[in-house]
Amino acid sequence: MTPFRDPSADAEAGGRHRAFRELERRLMRRRISQLDPWLRVELIALALLIGAFLFWQVRVPLDGLHHHAGPVAVVRALGAAWLALALIGAVAVAVRHRRSLRVAVAGPIWLALPVTPEDLGRHLAWESRGHVLWVALPGLGALIAAIGLAPAGGLALLGAALAGLLALAARAGTAVGERLATHGVGRAGVHPLFVRLGETGVAAGRRRVGRGRWERGPAWRALWRKDFAIAWRRPGVRTSLLVALSLWALSLSAWSLAGEPALRHFAAFALTLVGAAAFAEALVVLSGSDPFATLRTLPLGVGSLWIARFAWAVLAVGVLSVGHGLAARELTPQALRLFLVWTGGATLGIAALGVNYGVTLFPRADAAQRLLGLSLGLAVAASVMIPLSGWIVLLSAILHSARRLPYWSRLEET
Known about the structure:
Layout lengths: L6 H27 L3 H33 L1 H34 L2 H5 L5 H13 L3 H13 L6 H30 L10 H11 L16 H12 L4 H19 L7 H28 L3 H6 L4 H26 L5 H28 L4 H21 L3 H14 L12
Helix pairs in contact: 2-3, 2-6, 2-15, 3-5, 3-6, 3-7, 3-8, 5-7, 6-7, 9-13, 10-11, 10-13, 11-14, 11-15, 13-14, 14-15, 14-16, 15-16
């Protein structure tokens, strides 16, 4: 005997499902339309260049495998790579989804809508599933690199398998991320997701703060002091800052390592640049943490906003230069000046790129983070292919992103 199903309840559920699908389609169109044509061209060029780099890196090993073990071995290697990429993609989606549910979702706004936890969970998962595309690009590059080294039918099946694995990885990642975000959260009669979203909305208000004071001074300094006061209270900003500070501390300690001086020099330089990337991400998250409506009603221009955020980079470079100047005692004065110029200039450049993306893509900090990662990844890939060309790529990205600063006043909240 089949259980009775209320037709009106099914119709209502179908209506909610269609409403969320339409919302997602409109959000996607809106976000794409906000990207100016040059930025779209830049994204396409980044994807093509990264794909070409991956093709160049993967083609030679696959060709060697083909000659030694045949086309079947190539198919097996790619299949193993797909599984690894799917696992990486699931982890990336899970981390992003957990983080968004804990700190980045406007809980009270969603809770005011007459929707079920399942419908809302599926929509919020849609926001996070897109991060699986980070591993789709290297997968496609490896697949193209295998053309001619494996049967066409096998490659077609591998392409379909990659798409299926990434879809499963995205769903598994969001399920794990939601489970991690709602772990330990419970209230009788209330879905754990709703409890978590309610806590997300009120967590920032639990900390006691002092009364505001009216002071005279430039707008950028007031904004910088505000950023300084709230930076450690924002989990996303705090995490990125801790990573940057840890990497910079390791770069200073690299000068005391035993071994070849060239190894110490390289370790200090590399750790400084990786720390600069984490610091730039912190500036992006900090820019996106401002309430859109509140910030746009203040008497702030894009110049004051940019200076306030770039002042962080100037302060960081000053402290870092003093630290390296004291730690790198083995370097001659000329070598030390050259090292400080390269590390200081690179840190300022990477931070400027983060500030540009954070300001020009406000309040879409997630899009700014993706562009920052793509640009820095392309710069690294260019340096691997042609020495020193990565600096040209970095400078080009800084100049191109700076061209969009005058359009800050036209930005809209999505």
